[in-house]
């Protein structure tokens, strides 16, 4: 039903505003010509406030995973002792990737519905002075958990370890202060809170991370920071980038800047709170406690979650995401990142309450949250 | 002048047909949903005739270089003896990339305006039985040379070496027969003869190459064939792909199939022959001899080539490419790949003859070539 208007409520790729989509159709231009040479540095500078940094932001043509690998490839050589904080699918990805590069991987695992504990990290690092890099996830979209990166960064104390953060599903929707918090590498991608199509990743390195990269012997070419640096110094990408997607992102940044970052952050929190109030009003339980609840995606426990999702997709044209790992088939996830408003949350909740034969129960609870926030 | 209609005559990214650009603006969908699960395998199957293979074509979200690295990352481990045929910028890239992965790199260099010699390759391999992989370039766009891949493949004789070919700037515009020629890995990308925006690479492995990949210990995750295989078996990409660009490529394949591959190949040869006849009629010399002249891009020798290009870009809105490496500033390159017709060659030649104050000289020569081909 209503296939012509699919409501995409998954944690990425997220709906793209029509004015952004329109820019993806811009005529092709020379990526080494004067227009693109002006446009690309502008885009990268406009991303700096989202990272909370004055460092150069690099663009990698690829998925978010490509951005993650740019961090690993430049920092992890065979034998490099690293600590991966694993509390979900994307934390696991850090560990797998570091192993693929021969790193000596220490895993600090925490339950998949909770956040990483800064105290545990502090303790672990105290007893493992050899750790060179800690890999963390800001917003673990697989478990709908937001981690406290500032606290994790502080937990290092005077320990030498660099902190690398996957902020793919948070940057632009959740505050981040790379420089202030002392984070060393931050990775994000175009298709989440940035409201653009997938295909571009963005990575930023602190001065310490750059130094370590220079000394690192891991195999890399496409992801080699040194090559990127050489080209970016003359305002060019090393390899032919997704020119169309850059134009799209440029327009998406116009929208984000017009709203203002603070208001965008508040909007994401409001959507989260509406969804959580709504599902609770239906007698359903969010996967995570309030204290670590992601501002960009909400998990909801439900037996037969996949059949429930399929029915909603068919009947109402609303697409939720399923569970991953231990939660496969046991939860569904409601994405509320990027190009989404509180009104979209009302329709997401409407199809839930209709499916559960509780007309108005969830939406009314969410409306009250919204009213209170006004 | 005429900035609203830039004629992009560079060897990629190439002009994208408006109907293809329009598809890049399609609404975003779930890359793990049923629509994309149907679309992606279709696209990859439709690419097989361009490769000349019945093997699985893999899509990598990234630049053409990412596709090249998928070959290297899966076949080159520290100490792997490889032979790189280097006669241009992209041949050099193979060598650099193999070194980055710790390969023991043998380089067989040949002059930058000629093709690789199958005889030299045969001799080299006879005296170096240890070589495990040969890396070659089909169309070396930096030198506007087409290499005879069939002959290079045959030159191996009974030697064990796998043959990996960069066909980024040729596939879809120049015949290729991976299976018949016995080529083991072929790489291409979306933004050349495929007439789509940049951002997607495509890679295909022979059974022998797959076996070697399984035994190879090089560091890889984003480019790991094993991970791709696991996902592609269930018709899914491992990481979030450029969904918009897939829709665009889908439409580009419609255009290419409607024309027919044989006619597309003939069109590229005709454009090449028109350009070569035209520039010669102006008293200019193509960079390469006819026998190895690229069907997709033509280099033209000219003192002060860069100033000449800049003037043409400013005055006429036609953008040619400059030289690379030893040819920087000494040649200009006329791209004639993908979404280009013989009429476009006439306008490219028109701005040349006007700039050289020889009205009609080049276009009339090119028209005669075209008439003869009819």
How would you characterize the overall build of this protein?
The first copy, chain A, has 374 residues and is α/β, with parallel strands linked by helices. Chain A has 2 domains: 7-14 and 260-373, Aspartate Aminotransferase, domain 1 (Alpha-Beta Complex), CATH 3.90.1150; 18-256, Type I PLP-dependent aspartate aminotransferase-like (Major domain) (Aspartate Aminotransferase, domain 2, 3-Layer(aba) Sandwich), CATH 3.40.640.10. Helix content of chain A is 44%, strand content 17%. Chain A contains 14 helices and 14 strands. Chain A has helices at residues 18-23, 34-51, 64-75, 89-100, 118-127, 149-155, 178-181, 207-215, 225-232, 243-259, 261-281, 305-316, 342-355, 361-373, and strands at residues 7-9, 57-61, 81-86, 104-109, 133-137, 139-140, 145-146, 162-166, 185-189, 200-205, 285-286, 297-301, 318-322, 331-335. Chain A has a 7-stranded mixed β-sheet with strand order 2-10-9-8-5-3-4, with helices on both faces. Chain A has a 5-stranded mixed β-sheet with strand order 1-13-14-12-11, with helices on one face. In chain A, strand 13 and strand 14 form a beta hairpin. The longest helix of chain A has 21 residues, at 261-281. Chain A is globular and about 60 Å long. At the A-B interface, helix 3, helix 4 and helix 10 of A face helix 3, helix 4 and helix 10 of B.
Termini separation of chain A comes to 34 Å
Helix percent of chain A reads: 40-55%
Radius of gyration of chain A: 21 Å
Number of helices in the DSSP assignment of chain A: 14
Please report which band the strand proportion of chain A falls in: under 5%, 5-15%, 15-25%, 25-35%, 35-45% or over 45%: 15-25%
Q: Name the average pLDDT of chain A.
A: 97
Protein structure class of chain A: alpha/beta
Give the name of the CATH architecture of the largest domain in chain A: 3-Layer(aba) Sandwich
Structural domain count of chain A:
2
Globally, the shape of chain A reads: globular
CATH H-level superfamily title of the largest domain in chain A: Type I PLP-dependent aspartate aminotransferase-like (Major domain)
Low-confidence blocks of residues of chain A: none
Kindly report the greatest chain-chain contact and the residue count on each side: A-B, 56 and 56 residues
CATH class of the largest domain in chain A: Alpha Beta
CATH topology title of the largest domain in chain A: Aspartate Aminotransferase, domain 2
Largest sheet of chain A: 7 strands, mixed
């Amino acid at each position: 039903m209503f296939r012509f208007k699919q409501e995409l409520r998954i944690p990425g790729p997220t709906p793209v505003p029509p004015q952004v989509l329109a820019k993806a159709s811009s005529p092709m231009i020379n990526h080494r010509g004067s227009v693109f040479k002006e446009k690309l540095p502008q885009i990268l500078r406009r991303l700096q406030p989202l990272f909370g940094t004055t460092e150069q932001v690099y663009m990698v043509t690829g998925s978010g995973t490509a951005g993650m690998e740019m961090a690993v490839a430049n920092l992890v050589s065979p034998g490099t002792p690293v600590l991966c904080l694993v509390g979900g699918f994307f934390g696991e990805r850090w560990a797998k990737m570091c192993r693929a590069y021969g790193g000596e991987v220490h895993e600090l695992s925490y339950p998949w519905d909770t956040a990483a504990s800064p105290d545990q990290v502090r303790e672990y690092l105290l007893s493992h002075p050899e750790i060179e890099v800690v890999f963390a996830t800001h917003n673990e979209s697989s478990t709908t958990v937001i981690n406290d990166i500032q606290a994790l960064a502080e937990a290092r104390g005077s320990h030498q370890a660099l902190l690398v953060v996957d902020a793919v599903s948070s940057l632009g929707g959740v505050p981040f202060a790379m420089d202030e918090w002392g984070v060393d590498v931050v990775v994000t991608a175009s298709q989440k809170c940035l409201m653009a199509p997938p295909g571009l990743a963005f990575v930023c390195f602190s001065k310490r991370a750059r130094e370590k990269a220079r000394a690192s012997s891991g195999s890399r070419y496409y992801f080699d920071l040194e090559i990127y640096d050489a080209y970016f110094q003359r305002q060019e990408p090393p390899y032919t980038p997704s020119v169309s997607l850059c134009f799209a992102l440029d327009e998406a940044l116009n929208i984000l800047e017009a709203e203002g970052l603070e208001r965008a952050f508040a909007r994401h929190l409001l959507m989260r709170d509406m969804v959580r109030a709504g599902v609770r009003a239906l007698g359903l339980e969010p996967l995570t406690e309030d204290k670590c609840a992601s501002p960009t995606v909400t998990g909801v426990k439900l037996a037969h979650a996949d059949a429930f999702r399929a029915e909603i997709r068919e009947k109402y044209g609303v697409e939720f995401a399923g569970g991953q790992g231990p939660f496969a088939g046991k939860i569904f996830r409601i994405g509320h990142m990027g190009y989404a408003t509180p009104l979209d949350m009302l329709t997401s909740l409407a199809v839930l309450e209709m499916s559960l034969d509780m007309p108005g129960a969830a939406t009314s609870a969410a409306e009250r949250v919204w009213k209170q926030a006004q």
